[in-house]
Amino acid sequence: MAVPKLNASAATLTKNRTENSITPISGMCATCIDGCIGMCEIGKSAYRGHEVIYPQPFGIITAASEKKFPVDLSHFTILGTTVGAHGIEAESDKAIFSNVSTETSIGKKKDIRLRMPLVIPGLGSTNIAKNNWEGIATGAAIAGIVLTVGENVCGMDEKLEISNGKVKHSPDLEHRVALYRKWQRDGYGAIVVQANVEDTNLGVLEYAISELDVDAVELKWGQGAKNIGGEVKISDLKKAQMLKERGYVVLPDPTDNEIIDAFKKGVFTEFERHSRVGMVDEDEFVQRVTQLREHGARHVFLKTGAYRPIDLARAVKFSSTAGIDLLTVDAAGGGTGMSPWRMMNEWGIPPVELYSLLFRYVDRIASKGKHVPDIAIAGGFAFEDQIFKGLALGAPYFKLIGMARAPLAAAMVGKTIGKRIEDSQIPAYIHRFGSSIEEIFVTATELKKVFKEKFEEIPPGGLGLYTYVERLKQGLMQIMAGSRKFALKHIERDDIASLGLDASRISGIRYIMEVDREEAEKLLE
């Protein structure tokens, strides 16, 4: 198994001097020489200290783990068949991939309709999310998938109005919700507002429900990228002071005169804003869910991260007890914001192991006749084959796949193309497809037919995200047709097989050489 060279990474803008000769246990150069200027992570830490904990440059990148886990989704294969069809007549003229349905409905009342089994979970107060929200919200709404406004958006809003310690008006949150709704089609999709400890103290969810008519809210225990609260960097002194006044942990102290003097001299250029970790208690959790429903929330979700197995069991049990609509479980290794780099690589339960434990726990409560919330899983998903495998791993309980970095990448590319078209600087790689929005984005003709004159208002970032989701949709339809599953509800664990004994042992998915063994031997007799 390849050893990641975590002492040298693009994420921390570092590199080893002896790039082809690395000590595996430490990631250091095999020979560390006196006189080196310190390009590696240790060297850079010698003069920039805690700044090197985080992926850089902050605000214009997303980052995810470089660690290679022993088992991942590539250790499973999708099975096809030559007979029958589920969800459509078993006739060749009807069982074609274009007749596959990727639509689904979630929630206790199954009243949230989606065109694809996707949720973009928790894009919050980081610059990369805020600067690309126009494309993300527009594309997600047009595609008919769930979009979650992540933690700390209100707390970071410089124009936030607070009354008696609670949110009175947040222009940023209002804008994010309104933009998604503007582009929603035929009632598909949903905009969700998430809350962490600071958001709860500010009354963010109550504000979203009462003032913004948000139907779905999400409580957050954590995420897969890190096992602490959310973090961002602040390059403006007044904003750092404002956030400290609002109750956030801000480092170094932006009210200390010596720190202020050092910042103004350019000794450092960014403050760190940290969120607090929550303390989970079953009675308090159930009470909080009840409060939100009484306040008018139609749907209450929970998102948790790659914590210890007992914490996953808590999430499943508490969600069942409280009647949660959707439980999102985020595996280790992913991330869109400012997660500590070593932490992102070296903490938490990896995806396949986490999903397998989750299936086991959910199946256990289902066998007892208890409420089973719809389940979404997240952690590095990017393509249609991974979507299919993820749903199959936890069938019939896993309903949605959470994707953040990939949709964000699509939105950013769309935005960049739009700028290049405006500036008449289209790269040759893209120019071969044309020189206008209509020529370059393959879904433009379809969307112009739907939106008519309003098409011109769709931001290029939204076109990028929508076009990416459409690719995922057709790809998923083709895979499902090959497995003879013409609706999502027909996907089963038996639709995939393990390619190795370790993958089979962890997941409970049959090893490929054992699949259909009894049936095949009986047939051959």
Structure explained in plain terms:
The protein has 525 residues and is α/β, with parallel strands linked by helices. It folds into five domains: 10-53, no CATH class; 109-226 and 279-409, Aldolase class I (TIM Barrel, Alpha-Beta Barrel); 231-274, no CATH class; 410-482, no CATH class; 492-524, no CATH class. The chain is 39% helix and 14% strand. It is built from 21 helices and 17 strands. Strands 4-5-8-9-13-14-15-16 form an eight-stranded parallel β-barrel, surrounded by seven helices. Strands 10-12-11 form a three-stranded antiparallel sheet, covered by helices on one side. The protein has a two-stranded antiparallel sheet with strand order 1-17. Strand 13 (299-304), helix 11 (309-322) and strand 14 form a beta-alpha-beta unit. The model has no long low-confidence stretch (mean pLDDT 95).
Per DSSP, the total helix count is 21
Question: What's the CATH architecture of the largest domain?
Answer: Alpha-Beta Barrel
Summarize the main sheet. Answer: 8 strands, parallel, barrel
**Averaged pLDDT, please?**
95
Strand percentage: 5-15%
Number of domains: 5
End-to-end gap: 42 Å
Strand order, sheet with most strands: 4-5-8-9-13-14-15-16
Give the C-alpha Rg.
24 Å
Using the coordinates above, name the CATH class of the largest domain.
Answer: Alpha Beta
| Range of helix content | 25-40%
CATH topology label of the largest domain: TIM Barrel
The total strand number stands at: 17
Q: Which regions contain 5 or more consecutive residues with pLDDT less than 50?
A: none
Shape: globular
CATH homologous superfamily label of the largest domain:
Aldolase class I
- Summing up helix and strand content along with how strands pair, one would put the structural category as alpha/beta
